């Protein structure tokens, strides 16, 4: 089929590439001419495993094009995706200006019937606004073109985006148009194997499904972080509790890992946006507020642990960080817990030596060059002369480190494991102190300790 996609961010680029890979003729449009030129040269603006070769191959095969020319893309598309950003406004509501700009552009140039598919995460009711915007532009031109607006939210995860797109758990289609549903069923047929993954519903339910899914996942994480904080105080190990509750299929093992808080481009933004949607309807979303507040507090947890250990004497200390990206397999620093920790450490007068396999460029872009931040070439180099190691992101390469080497390189033998990736006993037998998230009696141990172990 002939497909046009507005927006070459995560969602647009991955969707366009995967649709081209299964044989569709795809044009991706972006207003950023530099980005388009780079994509045309095969330079991918994001780090996403498996994406780069697919973009290059499909571009070479002539099935995937990048352009700033919206009009030609609209003329090309039987199906036109809107996959532009919806960044949060000051009050947390989703900023729809990019989505509505695209709608106006479509209305101004559409010549023949098309299915308009909204993939951006947007407040409930946006598809109706998109439809009205396009209709108003068409009416202004005095033309009568048949079109449908469908909500088809995206559920891809950074780091697994290609896989999620090619093998989706579900394909949500919100539409009341048989014509549009048939077109999307045909488009998604290559990804809709083994059993029917299409879930058909009305447009508003589809829009709410996206927020509900992300808010539910964020809730699981905040809930577990709260249990971790309780475990800490009662002398339990949340990792054992996690296994104990996960074995109940109604709870499940997925997404109940406590840690340094959730970050990324979706959860923080979508929880806030859903709260805003609820309040705009006069409903106070108590659970969502608690999820967000718990997460904000959790992002400060590693700094609190460091503060307790060093008895608030962080000035002049050097702290080593392993991992900066908001999760492994990405260079994305948006809302990353590492940012809260970095900023708190700097405010306290500490210096940071850090290593992340992918995120250094992003960190430099965000913070510039600072003399209290050294980005190191390897995980071990980050430890040289540091007073503590803090694991912030659970990259695979951090999971089985040389403990003897860590012990030798650190000036103070202590590890703060913000993702609970280590076995506390193994760390302690290697002569290092261990503090995790909700594991055993960190708080009690601070109280029991006669003085700081740091010399
Ligand atoms: C998420 C959703 O998973 C995806 O379906 C949606 O389309 C976009 O938002 P993403 O932001 O890429 O995807 O990351 P995800 O892997 O879901 O992780 C989000 C955050 O939660 C990360 O900071 C991660 O470290 C944290 N997390 C995840 C936990 O702290 N504990 C867990 O058990 C799982």
TrEMBL record:
Q: Which reaction does it catalyse?
A: UDP-alpha-D-glucose + 2 NAD(+) + H2O = UDP-alpha-D-glucuronate + 2 NADH + 3 H(+)
Assigned keywords, A-Z: NAD, Oxidoreductase
Domain UDP-glucose/GDP-mannose dehydrogenase C-terminal, residue spans: 320-424
Q: Name one GO biological process term.
A: UDP-glucuronate biosynthetic process
The record's active-site residues are 266 (nucleophile)
Pathway listed for it is: Nucleotide-sugar biosynthesis; UDP-alpha-D-glucuronate biosynthesis; UDP-alpha-D-glucuronate from UDP-alpha-D-glucose: step 1/1
Binding positions for substrate per the UniProt entry: 155-158, 210, 255-259, 263, 327
Provide a Gene Ontology MF annotation, just one: UDP-glucose 6-dehydrogenase activity
Broadest EC class assigned to this enzyme? oxidoreductase
Q: Which InterPro entries match?
A: 6-PGluconate_DH-like_C_sf (IPR008927), NAD(P)-bd_dom_sf (IPR036291), UDP-Glc/GDP-Man (IPR017476), UDP-Glc/GDP-Man_DH_C (IPR014027), UDP-Glc/GDP-Man_DH_C_sf (IPR036220), UDP-Glc/GDP-Man_DH_dimer (IPR014026), UDP-Glc/GDP-Man_DH_N (IPR001732), UDPglc_DH_bac (IPR028357)
Which residues participate in NAD(+) binding?
Answer: 30, 35, 86, 121, 158, 269, 334
Source domain of life: Bacteria
EC number assigned by the record: 1.1.1.22
Query: PANTHER family from the entry?
Result: UDP-GLUCOSE 6-DEHYDROGENASE TUAD (PTHR43750:SF3)
**Family under the similarity heading:** Belongs to the UDP-glucose/GDP-mannose dehydrogenase family.
What is the role of this chain?
Answer: Catalyzes the conversion of UDP-glucose into UDP-glucuronate, one of the precursors of teichuronic acid.
Protein's recorded name: UDP-glucose 6-dehydrogenase
Question: Which species does this protein come from?
Answer: Dokdonella immobilis
